[in-house]
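I am still getting used to backbone structure tokens and would like to learn alongside you. Label the sequence line and the structure token line clearly, so we can match residues to local backbone shapes. Would you write everything just below, so we can both look at the same thing?
***
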Amino acid sequence: MPEGGPVPQRMVIGILGPPGCGKGTQSERIQRTFHFAHLSSGGILRDEIRQQTPLGRLAGELMSHGNLVPDPVINEVMVRRLKSTIDHGDGVLLDGYPRTVPQLRHLIGKLEAWAVPLNAMLYLQIDDDSLVERLTGRRICGTCGAVYHLLDLPPTVPNRCDKCNGELIIRPDDAVDAIRERMRVYHNETEPILAEMQKEHYFYRIPAEGNPETVFHHIRQVLEPLMHGSPSTL
């Protein structure tokens, strides 16, 4: 049994937030604690491309030329995986989908047709300055890929990986100017879908400024009552 209560059969929740907000960490905690099946749009697209499915070949061709994968392709890939997961009786955590208003409306339409509710969309909210501070402190081992943070998870020996003694580097997209540009693009892309969702009962803003334990406490305040059919306490 999951730590947080009964297995969440046919529950569907989503998680979204800007780069560096801790979405990956919180997705892992939700999956581990509540036993949701984790459906990441990025991971599923990579699977389709690796398996050379017709949709995967189309997505790979578009991405190789720097183009965005259009909504109909994303919808088909995600909804197909979502349906098979729901039919298996599992609760679902959607990560990276939906990202646009057309994707959201397509998802809602499919769930209504299957008589499955969208129980919660968790938006990890954090201001841009805090994100810049988080991301500029990130270091990656150039040899094994291990991730560190100068404040939250520093290496034992400065600039050296604890696992393999490789040199720690700053990723190009973790430079301040690159981070600011990612923030600008993210806000432009997500403001319409946030405006659409925040009117709905399933939308929850999760304060994401604190440490991972504090953020997950807020998430549990939303999910645990929902799993027992009660309103959220957040």
